[in-house]
Amino acid sequence: MTVRLDRITAADIAAERERFPRMFAAAAAERVRVWLMWGSGTALTVYCLYRFGFLSQDFLHGVAKFAAIVVAQLFPPKGFEHLPLFMTVMGETIAMAFLGTLLGAALAFPLSFFASKNMTRSRPLQFGTRRFADLLRSFDYLIWALIFVRAIGLGPLAGIMAIAIVETGTFIKLYSEAIENLDRKQIDGINAAGGNGLQRIRFGVLPQVLPMMLSNTLYMFEHNVRSAAILGIVGAGGIGFLLADRLRAYELQEACLIIIVLILAVYAIDYLSKILRERLIGDQRRREPVDDAVQV
Questions:
Q1: Which of 108, 150, 165, 247 could form a Cys-Cys staple with 171, CB 3.0–4.6 A?
Q2: Which letter, b or e, does each residue of 36-68 get, where b requires 16 or more Cβ atoms within 10 Å of its Cβ?
Q3: What radius of gyration do the chain's Cα atoms show?
Q4: How confident is the model at residue 102 (pLDDT cuts 50, 70, 90)?
Q5: CA distance linking residue 233 with residue 244, whole number of Å
Q6: CB 203 within 8 A of CB 190
Q7: What confidence category does residue 5 fall into, taking pLDDT thresholds of 50, 70 and 90?
Q8: Which fold has domain 77-283?
Q9: How far is 10 from 2, CA to CA, in rounded Å?
């Protein structure tokens, strides 16, 4: 039966509403569950805002004071005579992030196959690799940096190791999820042709998952530049050490200049990583619009 929409009248809709009320309105029990869920979420949000002082006069006073500090004490930035030093240390921060990301990706790549359900037949091995990855990324970069600073001393090496440890756990999770979501048809075709395990990975797995792995790695490199800037606060090298030093000395205008340098560096890395994704992964071709008319 075909019904034209322009011929349906309000009377027809009212009649159908009486015949099939559940199609036009949710059941009472379902509406109660929805209202309880939204009410509970709202009440919890209001309680948390009240419990942590967001609704107090002190918070509003602190916001006004923060705005006054930003306007009056941070700007205008100064210390441009130290700009070469800031740029050099910023380069050290980027190098820390690059090496930490590279080491984490290199360690995580083989382990991600053990963490994938469709690549590992041994359930204990797959479960143990997943939990090992969870252990590595359970602690923040600062915690690992404090441990490595105590173990190997102050300097960029502690920051690099902290980033590498956390990123190993993160990449194991990201890479293994990409492997688990691949299409089995290519692997089945290689099996039918008599391919071995390495050939299945080389020609059946990597062509599908490598673009996603590269995209995740580039994104985490951007993230690690910001993380490496913070690690210097605990003595793990990078521009964070200079930033913490200026903040402790109340040289807020020089700290503002360091923050501007960091922001510009993150912008530049984001732009370059976008270009790399387009070159290596082919994002530009996938984003091109499809013509409405098919030319034969």
A1: 108
A2: eeeeeeeeeeeeeeeeeeeeeeeeeeeeeeeee
A3: 28
A4: very high
A5: 6
A6: yes
A7: low
A8: MetI-like fold (1.10.3720)
A9: 18
Asked if residue 276 lies in contact with residue 218, where contact means CB atoms within 8 angstroms, the answer is: yes
Output b/e per residue, 169-194; b: 16+ Cβ within 10 A: bbbbbbbbebbeebeeeebeebeeee
Output DSSP code: residue 74.
I
Angle value at C-alpha 211, between 225 and 190, nearest 5 degrees: 145
Paired tokens of 246 = 């200026």
Label residue 294 by pLDDT band (50, 70, 90).
Answer: very low
Give the tokens for residue 4: 């034209």
Q: How far apart are the first and last CA of the chain?
A: 36
Q: How far apart are CA 278 and CA 126, in angstroms?
A: 33
Residue with tokens 């990324």: 137
CATH 1.10.3720.10 segments of the chain? 77-283
Q: Please tell me the distance from the alpha carbon of residue 135 to that of residue 19, in angstroms, as a whole number.
A: 57
Q: What is the pLDDT of residue 44?
A: 92
What tokens appear for 144 in the block? 């690992």
